[in-house]
Amino acid sequence: MTKIVGTLGPKSRTVDIISGCLNAGMSVARFDFSWGDVEYHQETLENLKAAVKSTRKLCAIMLDTVGPELQVVNRTEHPISLQADASVVLTPDQDKEASSNLLPINFTGLSKAVKKGDTIFIGQYLFTGSETTSVWLEVTEVNGEDVVCLIKNSATLGGPLYTLHVSQIRINLPTLTDKDKEVISSWGVRNNIDILSLSYTRHAEDVRHAREFLSKLGDLHQTQIFAKIENIEGLTHFDEILQEADGIILSRGNLGIDLPPEKVFLFQKAAVYKCNMAGKPAVVTRVVDSMTDNLRPTRAEATDVANAVLDGSDAILLGAETLRGLYPVETISIVGRICAEAEKVFNQDLYFKKATKYVGEPMTHLESIASSAVRAAIKVKASVIICFTSTGKAARLISKYRPTMPVISVVIPRLKTNQLRWTFTGAFEARQSLIVSGLFPILADPQHAAESTNATNESVLKVALDHGKAIGAIKPHDRIVVCQKVGDSSVVKILELED
């Protein structure tokens, strides 16, 4: 029921491996633009399309922006060794060569943003916590545009780019950079991205700005925006950001650096709870870092995945583990198995009471229908809930009450015209629910569109039931709860299958 977002990259971009990832349970593919060019990601995406065709599994596309990410540029690509207690200078002069005592960075304003005593982290792989590939610096003096630092631990940085993070300091750069806008308006538009992951979201205004930008790009006005919370500033404005965004990604790699480690779990629990009550997907990152190189997670990581599910997370996002990890398919499979075990002991009863109490009374018409459908399904021990929807909103509301059984969301295509041509919408809505806990979308046949908005059409229900049987969710004599619109009213009905 918990969804898995996999980042595609060097170790996970062939049709075979992507097919393996889809079969293992990946339902959203993330494209991280902080490395690799547009052509590289386009090739990967074409392979994803081929894999989707051959496995017949739907997959949503997530574009992850770079945002105001500070980077150290190592043009030589030779590993750089940094020794504890030595000094290193960070300079905005990118013409200089990176060495053990000089690191060129892509930002001219660092000297104005930091002061003596501030902490700076530089990570080869964005802070896995591995002390050998990330270094901790303390600012000792600011010299013009250069920042002189004391190295606190010995480490070796390899490769052309490292990420630089200044703890608890605001970096005065736009959240949606010019480079991001260029990628979205070319690659994003061409591929009709389903979800935009907005890195380093710090204010609700960041989400509004991104939405305004997307609204001018054809079909991308339908793209959902997930705010990625990566620092103290994003935490401080969390409530307003949650109101504006379609979902939240908790980027624990960076948060673990901006926050004291002992506070990360507290924020995670509070943030996931707020997302749950708002009925918006919560996605947790950095769960099984050790599987980048190993076939099994540590016991602590396995517990961490289970706790993320018990806290109410909708999806688990895998980054380095699938991007450059040695075992992308196995990682998805193991994370999926841990999630399934945790779901068995999820306290649905307590959760349901909390959710209904939070909504309060009087409930809106839709909330009332969604919560009734879930309550009925649990009382009659239904094997699935089938929900007819055109926008996906009704299905997401049902998921908000965390039913213990899958929700088959039948997306009814709507016919739209711009005076020149008729088009069906629905594919976006179907794919976007692939990041929501427990939702399994299918797209109804457009020829049903006219009658099915009233969902009186039995053939659409038959398609949903056949799909449920095919995936093993529905067996003879099962009970099914159906949530549908009849005329202007919404109806919840219970069906008992004969065979």
UniProtKB/TrEMBL annotation:
Domain Pyruvate kinase C-terminal: 367-487
Enzyme type, top EC level: transferase
One Pfam short name: PK
Molecular function as annotated in GO: ATP binding; kinase activity; magnesium ion binding; potassium ion binding; pyruvate kinase activity
Keyword RNA-binding among UniProt keywords: no
InterPro entries recorded: Pyr_Knase, Pyrv/PenolPyrv_kinase-like_dom, Pyrv_kinase-like_dom_sf, Pyrv_Knase-like_insert_dom_sf, Pyrv_Knase_brl, Pyrv_Knase_C, Pyrv_Knase_C_sf, Pyrv_Knase_insert_dom_sf
Pathway: Carbohydrate degradation; glycolysis; pyruvate from D-glyceraldehyde 3-phosphate: step 5/5
Enzyme Commission no: 2.7.1.40
Keywords from the UniProt entry: ATP-binding, Glycolysis, Kinase, Magnesium, Metal-binding, Nucleotide-binding, Pyruvate, Transferase
Family of this protein: Belongs to the pyruvate kinase family.
Protein name: Pyruvate kinase
Classification lineage: Eukaryota, Viridiplantae, Streptophyta, Embryophyta, Tracheophyta
